[in-house]
Amino acid sequence: MSPLFEIAPFAKSDLPHLFGLAKSVFADLPGWNDDAVLDALSSDVLFVAREDGLAAGYVALRLEQDGTCVVEQLFVVPGHEHHGIGQRLLHFVEGYAIAVRAPSLRIVVERSNEQGRSFFRRWGFVPVEDEVFELTLPEAS
């Protein structure tokens, strides 16, 4: 039997758990900043992916003044990789961005993250700056 999967809006009670998961994986990498991650988790639009009720990943979004939707963080919890969670979160975010009439969806991907860069290229994102990839969206009807 396959696990029950859902994507739901972030609940404040998720904050300590999601921050702890992200920190356990990324804290030793260059550029990690507790305050920046906590700020994104506290102020961005967040959606949490759950498998059988447990957090399996999340996506944090920011809406720019021009309407562009920016993915601040896309995170899959260790042990839940290769279950299609990142793809489902990205598909969900794309639909959300179209629904809010964003002209494009952007994501920052570090140069050293070749796996991530390849993943986003396969989704149709194109590099528009050194570490920024963009997907032009169709207009919502």
What does this structure look like?
With 141 residues, this protein is an alpha+beta fold. 33% of the residues lie in helices and 30% in strands. It is built from four helices and seven strands, in the order E-H-H-E-E-E-H-E-H-E-E. Strands 1-2-3-4-5-7-6 form a seven-stranded mixed β-sheet, with helices on both faces. Helix 1 (15-26) packs antiparallel against helix 2. It is globular, with a radius of gyration of 15 Å.
Keywords:
single chain; 141 residues; alpha+beta; Aminopeptidase; 4 helices
Secondary structure elements and pairings:
Layout: E1 5-9, H1 15-26, H2 34-43, E2 45-51, E3 54-63, E4 69-76, H3 85-99, E5 104-108, H4 114-122, E6 126-127, E7 132-136
Parallel strand pairs: 4-5
Antiparallel strand pairs: 1-2, 2-3, 3-4, 5-7, 6-7
Helix pairs in contact: 1-2
Give me the CATH architecture, please. 3-Layer(aba) Sandwich
Largest β-sheet summary:
7 strands, mixed
CATH class, named Alpha Beta
Gap between N and C termini, in Å? 37 Å
Mean pLDDT: 86
What is shown here, in short?
The chain is α+β, with helices and mostly antiparallel strands and 141 residues long.
